[in-house]
Recover the amino acids of this structure.
């Protein structure tokens, strides 16, 4: 695009579900952006989403019956891809075709995590974006979470600069299980919790270990070692619970995907120093709600963050009754007792700064901090971890055999 910077970025959403609504709420804290269109399959979902845009004062959002109609609307500059993982590539193919044929003026695209289900798919996502001349951003919110922004800045400025770079990053993300059937279906989602949540942990850990301003290639992945397990949801009682909740398409007695994953990623910096990422994720954690734990350790310092260790806590006695909700914290499991409350979830999880960053980069024609290339690099690590878990061995990088690798639980991807 030669006529950049634009004063405002006009965004069209693909998807109107859980994460689309989270992004919307966060955009109240972003300047220079309007939400001008939405496409998802069901009219009632689009109508609900458009009404939210109006209520939040984020623009006049038109509901589009087809993706092509959204893309051909001349008021749309950029697309946020927020639909399920199995719809990614088709969505990107349509964007590519419309832009290449000159039917769409879209010049930028942002895509939710994980970029794709396999390396082959992720590579194709990147190729399509590049071939259509699109600026591209990978939506990894944890990189933009306020404790990560602040913690990384302080660690590197005060401690690493005087005593040496950090060498170990630990990341964990756990909750009690996803909210829609497709997440539990290995072929649709791309795997189980390793694909769904380890993508966050490895990328935020890599980001914390990377010197501010240095490119991704300043750290080289040497090897990965992964473990996957089924701790909770294959137990007959819980497998039946899943089937009741999500229908016969989620059959954890016969076709489970993992609900626990552990990773060790060994890296090297440009001077040959050894660095380590330790990550663990699960869908088998029943605490107050979603728990993100992060640590960054160096020779004379340590940073730590726990998303449930909130400053704000509210106690409710057993006399307090009411409906179940997620109004205190994401993936909330209780409404009584001493409950942690995240007073600004969109900010602390990173959506506000993420959307501010992507809006500003796209508006000005600059390359975002996280691009589809980063999304591809994350998928490479995830596939290495799945392969490692499958063969029971460490996988050394580069690993060309991963190019056409599909995790065991996703092998019926068509
Ligand atoms: N960053 C994070 O922490 C985070 C958290 C949650 C999810 N995510 C990611 O965000 C994506 C969506 O997850 P979600 O939780 O929002 O899922 P969700 O609640 O199931 O919502 C999916 C949305 O996509 C729409 N959709 C389904 N098929 C579509 C298609 N072919 N074309 C266009 N829209 C379609 C659905 O609406 P219709 O039925 O009307 O089509 C729905 O609005 C996933 O990739 C997930 O990994 C990221």
């Amino acid at each position: 695009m030669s006529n950049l910077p634009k004063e405002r970025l006009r965004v069209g959403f693909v998807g109107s579900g859980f994460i689309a609504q989270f992004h919307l709420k966060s955009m109240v804290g972003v300047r220079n952006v309007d939400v001008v269109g939405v496409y998802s399959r069901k009219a009632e979902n689009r109508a609900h989403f458009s009404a939210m845009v109006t209520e939040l004062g984020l623009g006049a959002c038109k509901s589009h019956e087809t993706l092509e109609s959204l893309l051909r609307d001349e008021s749309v500059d950029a697309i946020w891809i927020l639909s399920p993982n199995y719809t990614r590539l088709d969505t990107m193919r349509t964007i590519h075709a419309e832009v290449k044929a000159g039917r769409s003026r879209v010049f930028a695209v942002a895509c939710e995590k994980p970029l794709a289900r396999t390396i082959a798919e992720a590579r194709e996502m990147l190729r399509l974006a590049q071939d259509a001349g699109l600026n591209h951003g990978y939506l990894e919110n944890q990189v933009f979470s306020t404790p990560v922004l602040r913690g990384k800045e302080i660690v590197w400025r005060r401690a690493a600069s005087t005593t040496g770079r950090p060498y170990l990053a630990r990341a964990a993300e756990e909750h009690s299980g996803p909210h829609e059937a497709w997440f539990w279906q290995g072929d649709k989602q791309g795997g189980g919790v390793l694909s769904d949540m380890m993508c966050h942990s490895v990328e935020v850990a890599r980001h914390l270990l990377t010197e501010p301003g240095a490119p991704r290639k300043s750290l080289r992945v040497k090897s990965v070692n992964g473990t996957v397990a089924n701790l909770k949801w294959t137990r007959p009682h819980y497998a039946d619970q899943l089937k009741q909740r999500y229908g016969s398409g989620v059959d954890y007695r016969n076709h489970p995907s993992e609900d626990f994953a552990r990773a060790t990623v060994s890296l090297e910096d440009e001077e040959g120093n050894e660095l380590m990422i330790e990550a663990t994720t699960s869908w088998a954690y029943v605490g107050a709600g979603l728990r993100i734990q992060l640590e960054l350790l160096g020779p004379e310092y340590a940073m730590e963050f726990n998303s449930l260790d909130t400053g704000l806590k509210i106690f409710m006695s057993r006399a307090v009754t009411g409906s179940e909700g997620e109004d205190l914290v994401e993936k909330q499991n209780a409404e009584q007792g001493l409950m942690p409350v995240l007073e600004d979830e969109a900010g602390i999880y990173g959506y506000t700064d993420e959307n501010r960053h992507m809006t500003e980069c796209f508006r000005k024609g600059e390359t975002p901090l996280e691009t589809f290339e980063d999304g591809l690099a994350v998928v490479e690590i995830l596939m290495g971890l799945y392969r490692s878990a499958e063969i029971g061995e460490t996988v050394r990088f580069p690993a060309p055999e991963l190019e056409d690798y599909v995790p065991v639980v996703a092998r019926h991807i068509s």
Q: What stands out?
A: Residues 372-391 form the longest helix (20 residues).
